[in-house]
């Protein structure tokens, strides 16, 4: 969701909106190719923040999952 909130759209990634909708709704797994394309849109600092669990989006998700 973070990248979609940044304004990254499916066509910029080379995928159809319906395929990415299935990924976002957990009906389809993220492929290695899609992950690589998504990571190109993150800065090092954004990646560090998101993977550390300190980003508000990540904190909320972890709280909901009770992790």
* Largest beta-sheet details: none
Termini separation comes to 19 Å
Total discrete domains: 1
Count helical runs.
6
Structural class estimated from helices and strands: mainly alpha
- Runs with pLDDT <50, length 5+? none
N-to-C series of helices and strands: HHHHHH
Radius of gyration: 13 Å
pLDDT averaged residue by residue = 83
Principal-axis shape: globular
How much beta, percentage-wise? under 5%
Strand tally is 0
Please estimate the helix content: 55-70%
Question: Can you offer a commentary on this structure?
Answer:
This protein has one domain (2-65). It is an all-alpha fold and 67 residues long. The mean pLDDT is 83. The protein has six helices and no strands.
Strands, helices and their partners?
Elements: H1 2-5, H2 10-13, H3 17-24, H4 32-39, H5 44-52, H6 56-65
